[in-house]
Specification:
Blueprint lengths: L1 H24 L22 E3 L15 H5 L5 E7 L5 E9 L8 H5 L5 E3 L14 E3 L28
Antiparallel strand pairs: 1-4, 2-3, 3-5
The protein binds iron/sulfur cluster (SF4) (2 copies).
Length: 162
């Protein structure tokens, strides 16, 4: 008798399992085929990165230092040089994401909307150095055309400048 009861219990459990499978086959999927497909949650705050200008393909930073000054974690740094037209050209921009609190203040103060939170949510590394991001890396290397400076006046043998 027990064998028959166990048989029907097992059979019912099989039917119930198949029922659940069939029911969920017709519902929209809640999972993605990661990493082929990735989530893009609109309010996700990933590591800070540069916005790419759709027209020029370049970044929008004008090296004004506003983000550097406001950053509460002091984790941003930049270098800029002046070109022949006295325009500041950004030559280096780094963010130490070991220290960044993702507070978004740098994004808010940027006058050119050059910064954004990236969608990078699965970054992993063996060293803290790998979390110091060079924001200029995805962009063409900056070319700084320097002002041609005349050589300073040389002192004449008599002691006065030539
Ligand atoms: S998000 Fe906040 S902590 Fe991170 S770099 Fe910007 S200002 Fe600094
Ligand atoms: S605030 Fe914006 S424009 Fe100014 S240095 Fe920072 S990223 Fe560049």
């Amino acid at each position: 008798m027990n064998t028959i009861i166990n048989f029907f219990k097992g059979f019912w459990s099989l039917v119930a399992g198949i029922g659940v499978t069939i029911r969920y086959s017709f519902k929209p999927r809640v999972t993605l085929e990661y990493p082929k497909k990735r989530l893009t949650p609109p309010r996700f705050k990933g590591p800070i990165s540069f916005v790419r200008d759709e027209k020029t393909g370049d970044h929008l930073c004008i090296s004004c230092n506003a983000c550097i000054k406001i950053c509460p974690s002091a984790c941003m740094s930049l270098k800029a040089e002046r070109d022949a037209n006295n325009k500041r050209i950004l030559t280096d921009f780094k963010v130490n994401h070991n220290l960044c609190s993702l507070c978004s203040l740098c994004i808010q103060v940027c006058p050119t909307d050059a910064l954004e939170h990236s969608m990078n949510y699965d970054e992993a590394a063996y060293s803290q150095k790998d979390f110091i991001h060079d924001l200029l890396e995805p962009f063409p290397k900056p070319v700084v055309t320097k002002i041609k400076t005349e050589s300073p006046p040389q002192p004449s043998p008599g002691g006065t400048a030539a």
